[in-house]
Structure formats: structure tokens, C-alpha cells
Amino acid sequence: MATPAVAHGSGETHERFDRLAHETFEGAILLKGGFAVLEAAAGLMLWLIGPTPILKLIARINAVHPAQHGDWLVTTLLHAAASFSVQAEHFFAIYLIAHGAVKLVLVLGLFLRKRWAYPTSIVVTAMFVVYQMWRFDMTHGLGLLALSVFDTILIALIWREWRRLPARKVA
């Protein structure tokens, strides 16, 4: 038989873990929502102004703060923006807008505790993880791996929050 001190301590630990898990969930979906807004805005900018102003901005940033040993990111962005076709431009713009909008709708659904948002977010995020891991297999980009780990943890947190929703009343 457990002593009251042990049972009480165990309950406090469980409560703290629950609170930490919930706050981590909220922080993670807030982060996802912020990136979703940025992603949709980038797609809209690409659609409206095209890559040329973006190319000029990157070149200006590189001129003011030149990389000492050749900045891979700047070089890659300059090359990508310079070689954009109109078709690629439209594809990436639509992709960024749609991808950002879908994630934003899911994040809003999760914040509003809408039941449909939990399983939908799990499925959509799992699809992103599969795609990211497929891309990682081809590119070996550590950013994709880190994003996949973040998304996998997010799936677990969404699942946990979904299970903790109050039972739906049947009329």
C-alpha cells in the first residue's frame, strides 16, 4: 500500500508533466502557425512580384554582409532565383500558398480544440514527415531530418491532446 506522501508526490509529478506537455503542444503549434503565415506570405510575394526583387534583395544583403568563405545558402538562393522559369515560379507560389494555408487552418483548428483538426493534423503531418524523409534520402539535408524529428514529436503531442479532449455528448 502506498503512503499518502508518495501518492501525492506522484500526482504532482503527473500534473507537472501534463502541464509541460500541454504547454509544449501549444508552443509547437504556435511555431507551426507562424511558419505557415510566413510560408503563405512568401508564396503570395513570389506570385505577385516574382523572383527578380527577391534576387535583388539577396544580392544586396550579400553585398552588405559578404560571406567570408562563400555562403552556401546565398549562392543557392541566387542561383535558384536566377534560373526560375515562369512555370516554376507559379508552381512554387501556389505550393507555398496552399501549404501555408492548409497548415494555418489545421493550427487554428487545434487552438480552437476542434475535433476534426486532431486526426487531420496527424495524417497531414505524417504525410509531410514521409515526404521529408524521402527528400532527406536523396539530399541528406540535416534540416529535413530536424524538421522530421520536430514533426514526429508534434504528432505525439497532437495525439496526446486529442486523447485528453472531453468525451463528445451524444444527443
TrEMBL record:
Keywords for the protein's UniProt record, in alphabetical order: Membrane, Transmembrane, Transmembrane helix
Pfam families per UniProt: DUF2127
Tagged with keyword Protease: no
Protein name: Putative membrane protein
InterPro entries reported for this sequence: DUF2127
Transmembrane domains' residue ranges: 29-49, 92-111, 116-134, 140-159
